[in-house]
């Protein structure tokens, strides 16, 4: 997710356009054990504008459409489109489409399209103990130019149900990624290292996996778990310029401590085996993990990180049409590479912070602002929905 610091956050409240057709039922308050009900379609258009050190001055729009249907949880289809352009010549387009009944079958499909050009993307080297200083960062030593395009598809098919909301799915995926990394000069970290995968290349992968999900709500879960394990293989047979495997484990738990207080945590593990390009290694730093560090701060052949969050809803307006909540978090993790000690509990990185979350006219539309702090810097984030 893009780092964003909004100078005028209230633009979302005054300039958003929301149309709802049908009936939208309020979210789980903790008093009912029945699953939420959704009927009809909901459209939202949010103009955005602001400034960040990564993006410079920027503007854009976030569009979301959710189509609900009777007895289909959590929706029939959902489309999200995010368009951003900045004064640093950064252009980002993210489009996601998800449908729970693909061509009338029980196969759930997710399609993600991403295209971006970053004139000032980050490369800090490979390993858990790479050099960093604010002076070098301010001198643009850690920047390179990144032009990237990717298409990802995942299909899910239920194989068994369990518990109140739970189901176990088998997954299959295809991932096609293109990147053209360009040095911003010989006196940059990228120019000095010329990391494996520089220049123009494709990394295409096919994968399989298992996904178990018992959450009571996919947008704002208050109880349940989500476990996903997958393995992807990149090979020249599907047009890839690299040969490697990508093994991932994603474990999430949600527990309600009090009526409106939820404890959420996520454990993520990645292992890359083979010759992967620098841009598809195990990477942490940013909104996905280790919030408070610079984007893509650490790269390695393996990574592990843990996110711990305490979430609550504080108050609401207009009969719960607008809700305001907050979250506090603590992140920890590290990467492993040939340049690092393999002692598992050695040199873990830590960050902490908190933020606010807003729900507008639909409990499934949430906007989040977080501030994360580390021993190197602090970062401000904006996102749609919770971090996980």
Care to describe what's here?
- There is one protein chain.
- With 388 residues, the protein is mainly beta.
- It has one domain: Porin.
- Helix content is 4%, strand content 58%.
- It contains three helices and 19 strands.
- The protein has helices at residues 11-15, 134-138, 189-193, and strands at residues 17-24, 38-52, 56-68, 77-86, 91-99, 107-122, 143-162, 166-183, 199-213, 224-234, 244-256, 261-274, 282-284, 298-300, 302-317, 322-336, 349-360, 366-373, 378-384.
- It has a 17-stranded antiparallel beta sheet. A two-stranded antiparallel sheet has the order 13-14.
- Strand 17 and strand 18 (366-373) form a beta hairpin.
- The chain starts with 10 loop residues before the first helix and ends with a strand.
- The model is unreliable at 1-18 and 20-35 (pLDDT under 50).
Tags for this model:
Porin; two-stranded antiparallel sheet; mainly beta; 388 residues; globular; 17-stranded antiparallel sheet; disordered N terminus; 19 strands
Secondary-structure class: mainly beta
List the uncertain runs. Answer: 1-18, 20-35
Strand content: over 45%
H/I helix tally: 3
Present the secondary structure layout:
Elements: H1 11-15, E1 17-24, E2 38-52, E3 56-68, E4 77-86, E5 91-99, E6 107-122, H2 134-138, E7 143-162, E8 166-183, H3 189-193, E9 199-213, E10 224-234, E11 244-256, E12 261-274, E13 282-284, E14 298-300, E15 302-317, E16 322-336, E17 349-360, E18 366-373, E19 378-384
Antiparallel strand pairs: 1-2, 2-3, 3-4, 4-5, 5-6, 6-7, 7-8, 8-9, 9-10, 10-11, 11-12, 12-15, 13-14, 15-16, 16-17, 17-18, 18-19
């Amino acid at each position: 997710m893009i780092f964003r610091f909004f100078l005028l956050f209230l633009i979302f409240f005054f300039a958003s356009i929301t149309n709802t057709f049908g009936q939208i039922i309020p979210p789980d308050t903790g008093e009912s054990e029945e699953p939420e009900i959704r009927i009809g379609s909901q459209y939202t258009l949010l103009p955005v504008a602001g400034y960040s050190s990564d993006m410079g001055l920027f503007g854009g729009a976030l569009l979301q459409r959710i189509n609900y249907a009777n007895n289909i949880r959590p929706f029939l289809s959902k489309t999200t489109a995010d368009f951003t352009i900045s004064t640093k010549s950064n252009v980002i387009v993210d489009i996601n489409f998800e449908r729970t009944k693909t061509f009338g079958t029980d196969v759930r499909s997710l399609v993600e399209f991403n295209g971006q050009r970053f004139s000032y993307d980050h490369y800090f080297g490979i390993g858990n103990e790479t050099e960093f200083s604010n002076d070098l960062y301010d001198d643009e030593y850690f920047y390179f130019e990144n032009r990237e395009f990717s298409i990802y598809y995942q299909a899910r098919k239920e194989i068994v149900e369990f518990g109140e909301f739970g189901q176990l799915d088998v997954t299959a995926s295809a991932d096609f990624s293109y990147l053209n990394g360009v040095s911003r000069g010989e006196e940059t970290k990228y120019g000095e290292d010329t990391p494996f995968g520089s220049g123009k290349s494709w990394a295409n992968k096919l994968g399989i996996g298992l996904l178990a999900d018992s959450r009571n709500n996919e947008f704002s879960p208050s109880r349940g778990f989500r476990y996903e394990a997958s393995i992807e293989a990149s090979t020249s047979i599907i047009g890839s310029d690299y040969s490697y495997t990508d093994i991932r484990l994603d474990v999430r738990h949600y527990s309600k401590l009090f009526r409106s207080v939820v404890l959420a945590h996520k454990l993520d593990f990645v292992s890359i085996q083979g010759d992967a390009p620098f841009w598809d290694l195990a990477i942490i730093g940013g909104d996905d993990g280790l919030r408070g560090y610079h984007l893509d701060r650490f790269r390695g052949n393996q990574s592990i990180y843990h996110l711990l969050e305490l979430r609550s809803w504080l108050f609401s307006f207009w009969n719960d049409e607008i809700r305001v909540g907050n979250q506090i978090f603590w992140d920890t993790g590290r990467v492993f590479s040939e340049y690092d000690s393999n002692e598992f509990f050695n040199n873990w990185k830590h960050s902490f912070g908190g933020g606010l979350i807003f729900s507008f006219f639909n409990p499934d539309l949430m906007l989040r602002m977080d501030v994360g702090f580390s021993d190197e810097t602090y970062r401000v984030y904006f996102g749609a929905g919770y971090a996980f």
